[in-house]
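Worked Example 4.2. Consider the chain below.
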Amino acid sequence: MQSSNKIASLKKSIMALGIIQIMSLVLPLITLPYLTRVLGVNAFGQVAFAQIIFQYFIMITDWGFSWSATKEVALVKHDREKLSALFLKTWLAQLFLLLILFCVLLLAILYVPFFEKYKNIYLVGFSLVIGNVLLPLWLVQGLESSDKILKAQFFTKLLVLPLTFICVDNNQDAIWAIGVLGFTSILSGLATQYWIWSHLGLTSQKVSLIEIVTTLKDSANLFFSRVAISLYTTLIPVVLGIVSGHTNVAIYSLADKFRVAAQSVLAPISQALFPRLSYLYKYDPDEAKKLLKKSGLIMLILSFLMSVILFFSAELIIYIFGGENFYGAVLILKILSPIPFIICVSNLLGVQIMLPNNKIKAFNNILFVAGILSFILMYPLIKKWAEMGAAINILLIELFVASAMMMYVVQKRLIFSKKEVE
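Applying the procedure from the previous section yields the following structure tokens:
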């Protein structure tokens, strides 16, 4: 009976995360054909480039908590005192990082000509980072309570549609395009904060600056994993923008949006599995492996289908969502199309097996080497082939990550139990 309740809870969590994920993916795609045509290639590239910069800010405020804190919440969720202390020190650490980043942005606007030129876009766009901090998904996922915030997420994200069509009218409205996303992100975060403080029964706790610093220090290893990942994901379009300009970023970003959308289809399963597997690997390893095999097979099949669909539908997708001015994105999307399947493999091996088994050092080492390889290859590939070189770079690096994790997991016999190996 208890096992069936756990399965039902996992399904509810996956379902809720799935609906939230669909909203996050579908709504921007509905507005995408409108934005690409109304803003034009250059203004659309400005917005895309700003979003890439703020992905770095979001990565810093996340600080690896989506892995470390999610796992900790899953282990202490039945103890309100420990949960309260964990939430407060982690969330305050995120607020501390948010304040530092805002100061960094102001300095960049004052002293860097590029940021000074587009200062309004970046000041308004910072709302994306605020909204992300207000919505501590690591807490919600660790509690397996995503269904509890579903209504608030649904209605706030739905606002993107009317606000985009009302506020964005011509190629001078790039600031409004990013402002709509930031505004709805903050609303979503505030709604989640209301649920946290009114429904979880968290107790007040004193948190010192030393505790905040210690929290950041304890999650630093996983943060540097995120940094390593960024060297072959978000850094690539940044370098592309610097070397080739906003137009090339727009073409690459349009194709990459669909690559990200395809692999994000499986994100709800991955996000729901991680806290559950973290708990099971500690208290019931055999059950963890059974769950991993069942869910892993589903994820691999779905991700393979997504990759195939991307490859054969690339021309149609780009024509519908970008128009003739973005036709160069067709080849980019075809090059990127295998990545959803490759990332699914590395996610199962790394996030769902290595991290729950505390193989953090090996996990970090693989990502660090991948980041260095990407950093070495990035400039020459982009310099020679622009956005096509950027796409080739990320494809090669994702293949390396998946292969290295496969070799490690098989060597350490982390997939099979001892009985199966014998």
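The chain has a mean pLDDT of 84. Residues 173 and 346 are 39 Å apart (CA to CA). Compare this with Example 4.1 before moving on.
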